[in-house]
Each structure stands twice: as structure tokens, then as C-alpha cells.
Design brief:
The protein is of the alpha+beta class. Helix content is 51%, strand content 10%. It folds into 2 domains: 11-173, dinb family like domain (Four Helix Bundle (Hemerythrin (Met), subunit A)), CATH 1.20.120.450; 180-250. The chain contains 8 helices and 6 strands.
Amino acid sequence: MADIALGSGGRSSAHYAAAAQLAHQVTAQLAAIEHASTRLLDAVADLDDFAVRQASLLPGWSRAHVISHLARNADGFGNLLIWARTGIEHLMYASGDDRDEAIVEGATRSHRLLLEDLTASCDRFAHGVRSLPAAAWTAEVADAVGDVMPAHHVLRLRLLEVWVHLVDLDCGVGFDDIPQQDVEQLLEDAVQQFGGRADVPALSVEVDFGDHRRTWDLRGTTSPPSRVRGAPGPMLGWLLGRTGPELLEGDVPELPAWL
């Protein structure tokens, strides 16, 4: 049997390699979140008191609702980082009603206060990421619906929230504006979210990234899968229920609501 190289404390070299890979992943994902957050804050800064009262692309929500939601979402994920750091359960939101009430209350604020709140919440989240001990990234936490996940998945979820709701603000940013490395990750997350649901039809999606192609299979049933092809932005928008299938090719089925 081959010897296993050990580091200090008797841990294997494989352990340290995995830890280094996770640290690199966290750094890269925080950089992606901060880039997306900069785009978001710039877009919100360009609005005014009249513009934030106008409808977003989300039915029943104004832009102010979306901005307020993004601020509370950052703080909610910050709560999960506290949970990971302390080991003491710290839920994203006290309850679903509290979350909804906070969004509605926030949506009544002026443009200036909305921007300040969003900026501060993004800064708090980034600080929480930077200050989290390396070992805490593998701690188990639970998202808003109670699904258990390692703490580092919080970063993927926040990136999805920022980009998707930036598009929802209807301020000139579309799914085609998401950087390729981000949209590929978001597509993978969307597929994984759909993949375990019984209400999702059997589906195979093929995405052309220019320099490579990827295919994901969603098999909600045992039926032969429909096959859908397209570019990254239109495919992500369709999977999330934000855009239609007009720019996609193949046998495009009807999907259930994303959430």
C-alpha cells in the first residue's frame, strides 16, 4: 500500500489540497459576486424616486420591491455565515412572513435610502465572507426552505440572486450580459435545482458557450427527454421562467415555475 503524505497535525496532503481548492473557489466566487454587485449598485444608482416605483419584470413587484429583496437576501445569507462560524443555528429569516414584511416595508423607502440599504447589505455580506474561518466553509447550514447545504453554497446562491434580480429590474441588463464563467455556473445550478423535481419533464439541454458545449439532463420522469439547444443567456432566462423559448431550438417543453 502506498504511503499517504501527512501534513502537520497528521492530516493528509489530499486534505490540504482540498482545502486549498476550496479557498481558491471562495475567493473566485466572492470576486464574481462583487463584480455582479457593482453592476447592480450602478444600475440602482442610475434610477430615481420615480423609476423605483415602476414595475419590475416580476409580477406584482416594483423595482423598489426587488431592491429591498436583494438587500434582505444579502443579510439572510449573512445570517447563514454566522451559523457556519458559530455552529449555532441562525436561520436566514425569522419566518417567511417576517421576510415578506421586510421587503414590503423596504419598498416604501426613497431611492436614496434603498440604495444606501442595498450598498450596506452588500458590504456586510462581503465582510462576512472575508472573515469566515476556512474550516467553517464546510459547515452545514440550511437555506430559506430548510434544505441542508455546506456553507460555501451560499456564494453560488447569492450570485444567482444578484444576476437574476438585476435582470428583473429591467434597467438594460439582460441574461446575455452575464459573464460566461458566471452564466455557466448559474445554468448548472438551475439544472440541479430542477433535476430533482417530479413536476419537471424529462429534458436534455445543450448550451453553446462558443469555445465549448455542455449538455445537462433533467430527468423528472422516465420518458424520453425533450432536447433543447441554445446560447447561454436565452437558455438561463428560459429555465428561470424569465424569457420565452423563441431563441432556443428543439422540442421545447413547458416548464413549471422556477420557485
